[in-house]
Amino acid sequence: MSSLRTLSLLCLAVALCASVGCVERRLTIRSNPPGAVVYIDDYEIGTTPVSTDFVYYGTRKIRLVKDGYETLTVLQPVSAPWYQVPPLDFFSENLTPGEIRDHRALDFNLVPQVMVPTPELMNRAQQLRQSSQIPQSPLPVVPNQPGAAGQPLPGPELIAPPNY
Questions:
Q1: CB 3.0-4.6 Å disulfide test: which of 36, 138, 146, 155 passes with 66?
Q2: pTM for this one?
Q3: What is the 3 state secondary structure string of the chain?
């Protein structure tokens, strides 16, 4: 009788261990329009719509890239549910029977890329070039003795660089 009880307790323990819970975390990313390449924390995941498993909660850097659309980079917080807060996470990960599923879905709208006409782009470049130049002033000529304090020594002529 004792061996039957021991066997049944052993079977119960094995059954409990086999059904011990775990948490499945999955993140799905969709874009409008679909077909954007998705990078999470600078690792390529695939093209939208795409799903991936994750282990840790926190802020993720999500980047979506698609030809003809502006590249979208977002720092997206993925907050932990109540059952994943320490010390509750120990029980949900190890002692809860069955599986807990935490599926998150993120939707992003991509903005069409604006094409700037070539003449306007050239005009902007010229304005930037002009605003970044340092005005050149000629070197002052001081008619005092060479070699005196603050006076240049005799030597080759000093020529100011040409203005561009």
A1: 36
A2: 0.57
A3: CHHHHHHHHHHHHHHHHHCECEEEEEEEEEEECCCCEEEECCEEEEECCEEEECCCCEEEEEEEECCCECCEEEEEEECCCHHHCCCHHHHHHHCCECEEEEEEEEEEECCECCCCCHHHHHHHHHHHHHHCCCCCCCCCCCCCCCCCCCCCCCCCCCCCCCCC
